[in-house]
Fold this sequence. Notes:
The chain is an alpha/beta fold and 523 residues long.
Amino acid sequence: MHATAWWQRGIIYEIYPRSFQDSNGDGIGDLNGILLRLDYLVKLGVDALWITPFYPSPMADFGYDVSDYCGIDPLFGTMHDFDQLLRGTHNRGLKLILDLVPNHTSDQHPWFLESRSSRENSKRDWYLWRDEPNNWQSNFGGPAWEWDDITGQYYYHSFLKQQPDLNWRNPLVRRAIFEAMRFWLERGVDGFRVDVIWLMIKDDQFRDNPPNPAYRSGQPSSHRFLPVFNSNRPQVHEVVSEMRAVIDDYKDRVLIGEIYLPIPQLMTYYGKDLDGTQLPFNFQLLQTAWTADALARAISEYDNALPTGAWPNWVLGNHDNARIATRVGTHQAKLAAMLLLSLPGTITLYYGEEIGMTNVSIPPELVQDPAEKNEPGIGLGRDPERTPMPWDSSPLAGFTTGRPWLPLGEDHASLNVANLDQDTESILHLYGTLIALRRSHPVLVTGELRSIAAANTVLSYERLGEGGRLLILLNLGDVPVSVPSVAGEILVATSQYCLSKQPNGLTQLGAATGLIVRLPASG
Ligand code: NOJ
Ligand code: CA
Protein backbone atom coordinates (compact mmCIF):
# COMPACT_ATOMS: atom_id res chain seq x y z
CA MET A 1 0.00 0.00 0.00
CA HIS A 2 1.47 3.42 -0.82
CA ALA A 3 2.37 5.58 2.14
CA THR A 4 -0.74 6.10 4.19
CA ALA A 5 -1.12 7.04 7.83
CA TRP A 6 -2.68 4.55 10.23
CA TRP A 7 -5.88 6.60 10.37
CA GLN A 8 -6.16 6.43 6.58
CA ARG A 9 -5.81 2.68 6.10
CA GLY A 10 -7.23 1.68 9.47
CA ILE A 11 -10.68 0.76 10.68
CA ILE A 12 -11.99 2.64 13.68
CA TYR A 13 -14.32 0.90 16.12
CA GLU A 14 -16.61 3.10 18.20
CA ILE A 15 -17.20 1.96 21.78
CA TYR A 16 -20.01 3.35 23.90
CA PRO A 17 -18.31 2.45 27.18
CA ARG A 18 -21.46 2.12 29.31
CA SER A 19 -22.55 -0.76 27.12
CA PHE A 20 -19.46 -2.64 26.02
CA GLN A 21 -18.33 -4.70 29.01
CA ASP A 22 -18.94 -4.31 32.74
CA SER A 23 -16.07 -5.51 34.94
CA ASN A 24 -17.41 -4.87 38.45
CA GLY A 25 -21.04 -5.96 38.39
CA ASP A 26 -22.69 -2.52 38.65
CA GLY A 27 -24.45 -3.04 35.32
CA ILE A 28 -22.47 -0.30 33.58
CA GLY A 29 -19.59 -0.95 31.22
CA ASP A 30 -16.20 0.47 32.18
CA LEU A 31 -12.56 0.89 31.12
CA ASN A 32 -11.42 -2.39 32.65
CA GLY A 33 -14.21 -4.07 30.73
CA ILE A 34 -12.86 -2.70 27.46
CA LEU A 35 -9.41 -4.02 28.39
CA LEU A 36 -10.90 -7.49 28.81
CA ARG A 37 -12.29 -7.37 25.28
CA LEU A 38 -9.26 -6.03 23.40
CA ASP A 39 -8.34 -9.43 22.02
CA TYR A 40 -11.79 -9.73 20.49
CA LEU A 41 -11.17 -6.45 18.65
CA VAL A 42 -7.77 -7.64 17.47
CA LYS A 43 -9.36 -10.81 16.14
CA LEU A 44 -12.06 -8.81 14.38
CA GLY A 45 -9.24 -6.91 12.69
CA VAL A 46 -9.95 -3.30 13.60
CA ASP A 47 -7.10 -0.84 14.04
CA ALA A 48 -8.31 1.87 16.40
CA LEU A 49 -10.86 2.40 19.15
CA TRP A 50 -12.84 5.56 19.64
CA ILE A 51 -14.32 5.58 23.13
CA THR A 52 -17.15 8.05 23.78
CA PRO A 53 -16.73 10.24 26.91
CA PHE A 54 -15.61 8.71 30.21
CA TYR A 55 -14.60 11.97 31.91
CA PRO A 56 -16.07 13.03 35.26
CA SER A 57 -19.65 14.00 34.58
CA PRO A 58 -23.01 14.35 36.32
CA MET A 59 -24.23 12.19 33.37
CA ALA A 60 -27.14 14.43 32.45
CA ASP A 61 -26.25 13.55 28.83
CA PHE A 62 -24.34 10.37 29.71
CA GLY A 63 -20.89 11.89 29.69
CA TYR A 64 -21.37 14.59 27.06
CA ASP A 65 -21.69 16.96 30.03
CA VAL A 66 -18.06 17.05 31.15
CA SER A 67 -17.13 18.46 34.56
CA ASP A 68 -13.38 17.79 34.27
CA TYR A 69 -11.62 17.39 30.93
CA CYS A 70 -8.57 15.72 32.47
CA GLY A 71 -10.04 13.02 34.67
CA ILE A 72 -11.92 9.72 34.64
CA ASP A 73 -15.41 9.33 36.07
CA PRO A 74 -15.29 6.76 38.92
CA LEU A 75 -18.15 4.94 37.20
CA PHE A 76 -15.73 4.05 34.41
CA GLY A 77 -12.58 3.54 36.51
CA THR A 78 -9.46 5.46 37.47
CA MET A 79 -6.58 7.16 35.68
CA HIS A 80 -4.57 4.04 36.42
CA ASP A 81 -7.21 1.95 34.62
CA PHE A 82 -7.04 4.37 31.71
CA ASP A 83 -3.26 4.07 31.49
CA GLN A 84 -3.56 0.28 31.58
CA LEU A 85 -6.11 0.39 28.80
CA LEU A 86 -3.93 2.69 26.73
CA ARG A 87 -0.96 0.38 27.24
CA GLY A 88 -3.06 -2.70 26.48
CA THR A 89 -4.30 -1.02 23.31
CA HIS A 90 -0.87 0.03 22.10
CA ASN A 91 0.72 -3.31 23.01
CA ARG A 92 -1.71 -4.95 20.63
CA GLY A 93 -0.89 -2.51 17.86
CA LEU A 94 -4.21 -0.69 18.23
CA LYS A 95 -4.71 3.09 18.47
CA LEU A 96 -6.90 4.91 20.97
CA ILE A 97 -9.05 7.91 20.06
CA LEU A 98 -10.85 9.95 22.72
CA ASP A 99 -14.02 11.98 22.46
CA LEU A 100 -13.42 15.70 22.98
CA VAL A 101 -16.47 17.77 23.94
CA PRO A 102 -15.35 21.38 23.55
CA ASN A 103 -18.62 23.08 22.59
CA HIS A 104 -20.11 22.87 26.07
CA THR A 105 -19.27 21.78 29.60
CA SER A 106 -21.43 20.46 32.40
CA ASP A 107 -23.14 23.14 34.47
CA GLN A 108 -21.16 21.57 37.34
CA HIS A 109 -17.81 22.28 35.71
CA PRO A 110 -15.80 24.64 37.96
CA TRP A 111 -15.51 27.07 35.01
CA PHE A 112 -19.27 27.42 34.81
CA LEU A 113 -19.72 27.59 38.58
CA GLU A 114 -17.34 30.53 38.53
CA SER A 115 -18.89 32.08 35.45
CA ARG A 116 -22.38 32.08 36.89
CA SER A 117 -21.25 33.31 40.31
CA SER A 118 -21.12 37.00 39.33
CA ARG A 119 -21.10 39.24 36.29
CA GLU A 120 -17.64 40.43 37.32
CA ASN A 121 -16.11 36.96 37.59
CA SER A 122 -13.02 36.48 35.44
CA LYS A 123 -14.69 33.50 33.75
CA ARG A 124 -17.97 35.34 33.05
CA ASP A 125 -17.09 35.65 29.38
CA TRP A 126 -16.13 31.96 29.08
CA TYR A 127 -19.83 31.22 28.44
CA LEU A 128 -22.54 33.03 26.47
CA TRP A 129 -24.55 35.37 28.70
CA ARG A 130 -27.27 37.75 27.43
CA ASP A 131 -29.90 40.04 28.90
CA GLU A 132 -32.46 38.91 26.33
CA PRO A 133 -32.84 35.52 24.66
CA ASN A 134 -33.16 35.25 20.86
CA ASN A 135 -35.10 32.49 19.07
CA TRP A 136 -32.35 29.84 19.01
CA GLN A 137 -33.60 26.42 20.03
CA SER A 138 -31.94 23.65 22.02
CA ASN A 139 -31.24 20.43 20.11
CA PHE A 140 -32.90 18.61 22.96
CA GLY A 141 -36.15 20.61 22.77
CA GLY A 142 -37.29 24.05 23.89
CA PRO A 143 -35.46 27.38 23.95
CA ALA A 144 -31.67 27.30 24.10
CA TRP A 145 -31.51 30.16 26.61
CA GLU A 146 -31.85 29.51 30.33
CA TRP A 147 -32.58 32.25 32.83
CA ASP A 148 -30.15 32.29 35.73
CA ASP A 149 -31.40 33.97 38.89
CA ILE A 150 -27.98 34.39 40.47
CA THR A 151 -26.89 37.16 38.11
CA GLY A 152 -30.15 37.91 36.28
CA GLN A 153 -29.07 36.92 32.75
CA TYR A 154 -29.69 34.09 30.32
CA TYR A 155 -27.01 31.59 29.29
CA TYR A 156 -26.96 29.65 26.05
CA HIS A 157 -27.04 25.85 25.76
CA SER A 158 -27.14 24.06 22.38
CA PHE A 159 -28.20 20.90 24.25
CA LEU A 160 -29.48 20.45 27.83
CA LYS A 161 -29.57 23.37 30.24
CA GLN A 162 -27.03 21.29 32.19
CA GLN A 163 -24.69 21.74 29.18
CA PRO A 164 -23.85 25.46 28.88
CA ASP A 165 -21.97 26.40 25.68
CA LEU A 166 -18.45 27.75 25.99
CA ASN A 167 -17.61 31.04 24.31
CA TRP A 168 -15.08 30.02 21.67
CA ARG A 169 -14.45 33.65 20.72
CA ASN A 170 -12.64 33.98 24.04
CA PRO A 171 -8.93 33.11 23.63
CA LEU A 172 -8.71 31.85 27.21
CA VAL A 173 -11.36 29.21 26.48
CA ARG A 174 -9.36 28.08 23.47
CA ARG A 175 -6.21 27.90 25.51
CA ALA A 176 -7.89 25.89 28.29
CA ILE A 177 -9.30 23.25 25.92
CA PHE A 178 -6.06 23.04 23.95
CA GLU A 179 -4.28 22.37 27.24
CA ALA A 180 -6.71 19.53 27.94
CA MET A 181 -5.96 18.11 24.48
CA ARG A 182 -2.24 18.27 25.24
CA PHE A 183 -2.79 16.54 28.56
CA TRP A 184 -4.13 13.47 26.74
CA LEU A 185 -1.76 13.71 23.78
CA GLU A 186 1.20 13.73 26.17
CA ARG A 187 -0.25 10.63 27.81
CA GLY A 188 -0.15 8.97 24.43
CA VAL A 189 -3.68 9.03 22.97
CA ASP A 190 -3.76 8.90 19.19
CA GLY A 191 -6.37 11.54 18.46
CA PHE A 192 -9.78 12.98 19.11
CA ARG A 193 -13.27 12.77 17.73
CA VAL A 194 -14.58 16.28 18.29
CA ASP A 195 -18.19 16.58 19.37
CA VAL A 196 -20.46 18.94 17.35
CA ILE A 197 -17.48 20.76 15.89
CA TRP A 198 -19.68 22.71 13.45
CA LEU A 199 -21.60 24.35 16.31
CA MET A 200 -18.65 25.81 18.17
CA ILE A 201 -18.90 29.42 16.96
CA LYS A 202 -22.15 31.39 17.07
CA ASP A 203 -23.11 34.65 15.39
CA ASP A 204 -21.43 37.50 17.25
CA GLN A 205 -24.59 39.62 16.90
CA PHE A 206 -26.87 36.79 18.07
CA ARG A 207 -29.29 37.37 15.19
CA ASP A 208 -32.56 35.42 15.22
CA ASN A 209 -32.71 32.35 13.00
CA PRO A 210 -35.19 32.44 10.09
CA PRO A 211 -38.27 30.23 10.33
CA ASN A 212 -38.04 26.84 8.65
CA PRO A 213 -40.77 26.74 5.97
CA ALA A 214 -40.67 22.93 5.97
CA TYR A 215 -41.40 22.64 9.70
CA ARG A 216 -44.53 20.65 10.59
CA SER A 217 -45.99 20.20 14.03
CA GLY A 218 -44.91 16.93 15.62
CA GLN A 219 -41.34 17.42 14.44
CA PRO A 220 -38.59 18.16 16.99
CA SER A 221 -38.91 21.73 18.21
CA SER A 222 -35.33 22.46 17.18
CA HIS A 223 -36.50 22.18 13.56
CA ARG A 224 -38.77 25.23 13.85
CA PHE A 225 -36.00 27.54 12.68
CA LEU A 226 -33.15 27.14 10.22
CA PRO A 227 -29.86 27.02 12.15
CA VAL A 228 -28.28 29.86 10.16
CA PHE A 229 -26.81 31.93 12.98
CA ASN A 230 -25.99 29.30 15.60
CA SER A 231 -24.20 26.72 13.48
CA ASN A 232 -21.56 26.43 10.76
CA ARG A 233 -20.41 30.04 11.10
CA PRO A 234 -17.46 30.93 8.88
CA GLN A 235 -15.19 31.72 11.86
CA VAL A 236 -15.47 28.13 13.09
CA HIS A 237 -12.74 27.14 10.66
CA GLU A 238 -10.23 29.27 12.50
CA VAL A 239 -10.94 27.24 15.66
CA VAL A 240 -10.77 23.94 13.80
CA SER A 241 -7.40 24.78 12.29
CA GLU A 242 -6.09 25.83 15.71
CA MET A 243 -7.16 22.44 17.08
CA ARG A 244 -5.45 20.78 14.16
CA ALA A 245 -2.27 22.69 14.94
CA VAL A 246 -2.35 21.22 18.45
CA ILE A 247 -2.66 17.72 17.00
CA ASP A 248 0.14 18.39 14.52
CA ASP A 249 2.55 19.19 17.34
CA TYR A 250 2.53 15.45 17.99
CA LYS A 251 3.48 12.65 15.66
CA ASP A 252 0.85 10.66 13.80
CA ARG A 253 -2.34 11.82 15.54
CA VAL A 254 -5.80 12.35 14.08
CA LEU A 255 -8.56 14.92 14.39
CA ILE A 256 -12.03 13.71 13.48
CA GLY A 257 -15.01 16.07 13.41
CA GLU A 258 -18.63 15.26 14.09
CA ILE A 259 -20.49 17.23 11.42
CA TYR A 260 -24.08 16.89 10.25
CA LEU A 261 -24.14 19.14 7.18
CA PRO A 262 -24.89 18.74 3.47
CA ILE A 263 -21.92 17.56 1.39
CA PRO A 264 -20.70 20.96 0.09
CA GLN A 265 -20.56 22.44 3.60
CA LEU A 266 -19.16 19.23 5.07
CA MET A 267 -16.20 19.43 2.70
CA THR A 268 -15.17 22.83 4.07
CA TYR A 269 -14.19 21.06 7.31
CA TYR A 270 -11.14 19.58 5.62
CA GLY A 271 -9.96 23.16 5.91
CA LYS A 272 -8.21 25.60 3.64
CA ASP A 273 -5.16 23.73 2.33
CA LEU A 274 -6.35 20.71 4.33
CA ASP A 275 -5.56 22.39 7.64
CA GLY A 276 -8.90 21.38 9.23
CA THR A 277 -10.02 17.96 10.45
CA GLN A 278 -8.32 15.04 8.70
CA LEU A 279 -11.65 13.19 8.84
CA PRO A 280 -14.88 15.18 8.86
CA PHE A 281 -17.29 12.33 9.62
CA ASN A 282 -19.28 11.39 6.54
CA PHE A 283 -22.81 10.42 7.54
CA GLN A 284 -24.19 9.90 4.01
CA LEU A 285 -24.95 6.21 4.58
CA LEU A 286 -26.96 7.01 7.71
CA GLN A 287 -29.09 9.55 5.95
CA THR A 288 -29.59 8.27 2.43
CA ALA A 289 -32.65 6.25 1.44
CA TRP A 290 -31.76 2.57 1.12
CA THR A 291 -32.19 2.28 -2.64
CA ALA A 292 -29.60 1.61 -5.32
CA ASP A 293 -30.41 4.89 -6.97
CA ALA A 294 -30.18 7.12 -3.91
CA LEU A 295 -27.01 5.44 -2.67
CA ALA A 296 -25.34 5.69 -6.09
CA ARG A 297 -26.11 9.40 -6.14
CA ALA A 298 -24.91 10.03 -2.58
CA ILE A 299 -21.69 8.06 -3.08
CA SER A 300 -20.89 9.87 -6.34
CA GLU A 301 -21.74 13.25 -4.94
CA TYR A 302 -19.47 12.73 -1.94
CA ASP A 303 -16.64 11.31 -4.01
CA ASN A 304 -16.81 14.14 -6.56
CA ALA A 305 -16.93 16.81 -3.89
CA LEU A 306 -13.76 15.71 -2.07
CA PRO A 307 -11.15 18.45 -2.26
CA THR A 308 -7.82 17.45 -3.81
CA GLY A 309 -5.84 15.44 -1.29
CA ALA A 310 -8.77 15.06 1.12
CA TRP A 311 -9.18 11.58 2.57
CA PRO A 312 -12.66 10.01 2.41
CA ASN A 313 -14.38 8.20 5.26
CA TRP A 314 -17.58 6.22 5.71
CA VAL A 315 -19.84 5.33 8.62
CA LEU A 316 -23.00 3.20 8.95
CA GLY A 317 -24.02 4.03 12.49
CA ASN A 318 -23.21 5.63 15.82
CA HIS A 319 -24.63 6.17 19.30
CA ASP A 320 -27.02 8.90 18.09
CA ASN A 321 -28.77 7.08 15.26
CA ALA A 322 -30.86 3.98 14.73
CA ARG A 323 -28.76 0.88 14.19
CA ILE A 324 -28.31 0.01 10.53
CA ALA A 325 -29.89 -3.45 10.92
CA THR A 326 -33.03 -1.77 12.24
CA ARG A 327 -33.08 1.05 9.72
CA VAL A 328 -32.70 -1.15 6.65
CA GLY A 329 -33.79 -4.53 8.04
CA THR A 330 -31.78 -7.39 9.49
CA HIS A 331 -31.92 -9.19 6.15
CA GLN A 332 -29.93 -6.29 4.65
CA ALA A 333 -27.26 -6.11 7.36
CA LYS A 334 -24.67 -8.23 5.53
CA LEU A 335 -25.17 -6.25 2.37
CA ALA A 336 -24.70 -3.03 4.33
CA ALA A 337 -21.43 -4.42 5.71
CA MET A 338 -20.21 -5.18 2.20
CA LEU A 339 -21.15 -1.70 1.02
CA LEU A 340 -19.38 -0.01 3.93
CA LEU A 341 -16.23 -2.09 3.74
CA SER A 342 -15.80 -1.74 -0.01
CA LEU A 343 -15.83 2.08 -0.03
CA PRO A 344 -12.65 4.14 -0.09
CA GLY A 345 -10.80 5.65 2.85
CA THR A 346 -11.30 5.26 6.56
CA ILE A 347 -14.14 3.16 7.88
CA THR A 348 -15.71 3.59 11.32
CA LEU A 349 -17.77 0.75 12.81
CA TYR A 350 -20.20 1.12 15.72
CA TYR A 351 -19.94 -1.61 18.37
CA GLY A 352 -22.43 -4.40 17.71
CA GLU A 353 -22.77 -3.67 13.98
CA GLU A 354 -20.52 -6.65 13.37
CA ILE A 355 -23.05 -8.98 14.98
CA GLY A 356 -26.05 -7.36 13.33
CA MET A 357 -27.33 -5.85 16.57
CA THR A 358 -30.69 -4.13 16.24
CA ASN A 359 -32.33 -1.32 18.19
CA VAL A 360 -33.85 -2.55 21.43
CA SER A 361 -37.20 -1.06 22.30
CA ILE A 362 -37.12 0.52 25.72
CA PRO A 363 -40.26 0.57 27.87
CA PRO A 364 -41.10 4.10 29.11
CA GLU A 365 -40.12 3.35 32.71
CA LEU A 366 -36.60 2.33 31.62
CA VAL A 367 -35.90 5.31 29.37
CA GLN A 368 -32.57 6.97 30.19
CA ASP A 369 -31.87 9.36 27.34
CA PRO A 370 -32.79 13.02 28.00
CA ALA A 371 -33.57 13.47 24.30
CA GLU A 372 -36.46 11.03 24.71
CA LYS A 373 -37.50 12.35 28.12
CA ASN A 374 -37.71 15.95 26.86
CA GLU A 375 -39.66 15.20 23.68
CA PRO A 376 -41.13 11.74 24.17
CA GLY A 377 -42.65 9.51 21.54
CA ILE A 378 -41.33 11.12 18.35
CA GLY A 379 -38.37 8.83 17.89
CA LEU A 380 -35.64 11.05 19.31
CA GLY A 381 -34.51 8.61 22.03
CA ARG A 382 -31.07 7.07 21.57
CA ASP A 383 -31.28 4.34 24.21
CA PRO A 384 -32.38 1.73 21.62
CA GLU A 385 -29.00 1.89 19.84
CA ARG A 386 -26.99 2.04 23.09
CA THR A 387 -27.92 -1.29 24.70
CA PRO A 388 -25.37 -3.74 26.14
CA MET A 389 -23.22 -5.83 23.83
CA PRO A 390 -24.28 -9.49 24.00
CA TRP A 391 -21.13 -11.58 24.31
CA ASP A 392 -22.48 -15.07 25.01
CA SER A 393 -25.61 -17.12 25.71
CA SER A 394 -25.51 -16.80 29.50
CA PRO A 395 -28.49 -15.05 31.14
CA LEU A 396 -26.83 -11.60 31.21
CA ALA A 397 -24.99 -12.20 27.94
CA GLY A 398 -21.55 -11.97 29.55
CA PHE A 399 -21.99 -8.19 29.73
CA THR A 400 -22.44 -7.92 33.49
CA THR A 401 -23.19 -9.90 36.61
CA GLY A 402 -25.49 -7.13 37.84
CA ARG A 403 -28.52 -5.36 36.44
CA PRO A 404 -27.70 -3.91 33.01
CA TRP A 405 -28.29 -0.13 32.88
CA LEU A 406 -30.34 -0.65 29.70
CA PRO A 407 -32.06 -3.92 28.80
CA LEU A 408 -30.36 -6.50 26.61
CA GLY A 409 -32.03 -7.26 23.31
CA GLU A 410 -34.62 -10.03 23.49
CA ASP A 411 -32.61 -12.04 20.98
CA HIS A 412 -29.39 -12.04 23.03
CA ALA A 413 -29.53 -15.77 23.78
CA SER A 414 -29.04 -16.47 20.08
CA LEU A 415 -27.59 -13.25 18.69
CA ASN A 416 -24.30 -12.93 20.55
CA VAL A 417 -20.59 -12.96 19.79
CA ALA A 418 -19.91 -16.52 21.01
CA ASN A 419 -22.72 -18.00 18.94
CA LEU A 420 -21.94 -16.12 15.77
CA ASP A 421 -18.29 -16.97 16.13
CA GLN A 422 -19.24 -20.66 15.82
CA ASP A 423 -21.12 -20.07 12.59
CA THR A 424 -18.90 -19.46 9.58
CA GLU A 425 -21.87 -18.09 7.61
CA SER A 426 -22.59 -15.44 10.23
CA ILE A 427 -22.43 -11.68 9.82
CA LEU A 428 -19.56 -11.62 12.32
CA HIS A 429 -17.52 -13.85 10.02
CA LEU A 430 -18.44 -11.69 7.06
CA TYR A 431 -17.15 -8.61 8.89
CA GLY A 432 -13.91 -10.45 9.67
CA THR A 433 -13.55 -11.53 6.04
CA LEU A 434 -14.25 -8.07 4.64
CA ILE A 435 -11.86 -6.42 7.07
CA ALA A 436 -9.15 -8.92 6.17
CA LEU A 437 -9.87 -8.31 2.48
CA ARG A 438 -9.24 -4.57 2.93
CA ARG A 439 -5.85 -5.44 4.37
CA SER A 440 -4.91 -7.92 1.65
CA HIS A 441 -6.38 -5.76 -1.16
CA PRO A 442 -5.24 -2.16 -0.60
CA VAL A 443 -7.20 -1.17 -3.70
CA LEU A 444 -10.27 -1.27 -1.44
CA VAL A 445 -8.75 1.44 0.73
CA THR A 446 -6.81 3.61 -1.67
CA GLY A 447 -8.22 2.74 -5.10
CA GLU A 448 -10.39 5.06 -7.15
CA LEU A 449 -14.13 4.70 -7.11
CA ARG A 450 -15.33 4.18 -10.69
CA SER A 451 -18.47 3.38 -12.67
CA ILE A 452 -20.93 3.94 -9.83
CA ALA A 453 -24.27 2.81 -11.18
CA ALA A 454 -27.78 1.83 -10.17
CA ALA A 455 -29.69 -0.60 -12.36
CA ASN A 456 -33.03 -1.64 -10.98
CA THR A 457 -32.25 -2.64 -7.40
CA VAL A 458 -28.56 -3.29 -8.02
CA LEU A 459 -25.92 -0.85 -6.90
CA SER A 460 -22.55 -1.44 -8.51
CA TYR A 461 -19.17 0.23 -8.57
CA GLU A 462 -15.58 -0.57 -9.29
CA ARG A 463 -12.44 0.02 -7.31
CA LEU A 464 -9.35 0.60 -9.37
CA GLY A 465 -5.77 1.06 -8.27
CA GLU A 466 -2.99 -0.67 -6.43
CA GLY A 467 -3.12 -4.33 -7.18
CA GLY A 468 -6.07 -4.48 -9.50
CA ARG A 469 -9.65 -3.81 -10.31
CA LEU A 470 -12.58 -4.98 -8.25
CA LEU A 471 -16.28 -4.94 -9.01
CA ILE A 472 -18.82 -4.63 -6.23
CA LEU A 473 -22.36 -5.76 -7.00
CA LEU A 474 -25.07 -5.25 -4.39
CA ASN A 475 -28.71 -6.21 -4.85
CA LEU A 476 -30.65 -4.07 -2.39
CA GLY A 477 -33.96 -5.49 -3.50
CA ASP A 478 -36.11 -8.08 -1.77
CA VAL A 479 -36.26 -10.27 -4.86
CA PRO A 480 -33.50 -11.80 -6.99
CA VAL A 481 -32.52 -9.91 -10.15
CA SER A 482 -30.80 -10.86 -13.35
CA VAL A 483 -27.30 -9.53 -13.72
CA PRO A 484 -24.86 -9.79 -16.61
CA SER A 485 -22.58 -12.80 -16.14
CA VAL A 486 -19.62 -11.78 -14.13
CA ALA A 487 -16.27 -12.69 -15.64
CA GLY A 488 -13.92 -12.68 -12.70
CA GLU A 489 -13.04 -14.34 -9.46
CA ILE A 490 -15.50 -13.91 -6.63
CA LEU A 491 -13.46 -12.79 -3.63
CA VAL A 492 -16.32 -12.47 -1.13
CA ALA A 493 -20.05 -13.09 -1.26
CA THR A 494 -22.55 -12.19 1.45
CA SER A 495 -23.93 -15.70 1.09
CA GLN A 496 -22.81 -18.84 -0.67
CA TYR A 497 -26.13 -18.76 -2.54
CA CYS A 498 -25.71 -15.25 -3.99
CA LEU A 499 -25.47 -16.23 -7.63
CA SER A 500 -27.59 -18.77 -9.42
CA LYS A 501 -27.65 -19.74 -13.06
CA GLN A 502 -31.12 -19.74 -14.56
CA PRO A 503 -32.33 -22.22 -17.20
CA ASN A 504 -32.62 -19.31 -19.67
CA GLY A 505 -28.86 -18.73 -19.42
CA LEU A 506 -29.17 -15.63 -17.23
CA THR A 507 -27.42 -15.22 -13.91
CA GLN A 508 -29.39 -14.12 -10.88
CA LEU A 509 -28.16 -12.18 -7.88
CA GLY A 510 -30.18 -13.15 -4.81
CA ALA A 511 -32.34 -10.78 -2.77
CA ALA A 512 -30.27 -8.57 -0.44
CA THR A 513 -27.01 -10.21 -1.44
CA GLY A 514 -23.75 -8.87 -2.75
CA LEU A 515 -20.40 -9.82 -4.24
CA ILE A 516 -16.90 -8.50 -4.54
CA VAL A 517 -15.31 -9.74 -7.74
CA ARG A 518 -11.77 -9.41 -9.01
CA LEU A 519 -11.95 -8.35 -12.63
CA PRO A 520 -9.34 -9.29 -15.20
CA ALA A 521 -6.75 -6.48 -15.34
CA SER A 522 -7.61 -5.26 -18.83
CA GLY A 523 -11.32 -6.14 -18.88
C1 NOJ B 1 -23.22 14.73 19.87
C2 NOJ B 1 -23.06 13.46 20.63
O1 NOJ B 1 -22.71 12.42 19.75
C3 NOJ B 1 -24.37 13.22 21.35
O2 NOJ B 1 -24.45 11.94 21.89
C4 NOJ B 1 -24.50 14.31 22.40
O3 NOJ B 1 -25.75 14.18 23.06
C5 NOJ B 1 -24.42 15.69 21.77
N1 NOJ B 1 -23.35 15.80 20.80
C6 NOJ B 1 -24.17 16.74 22.82
O4 NOJ B 1 -22.85 16.62 23.30
CA1 CA C 1 -18.98 -1.21 35.81
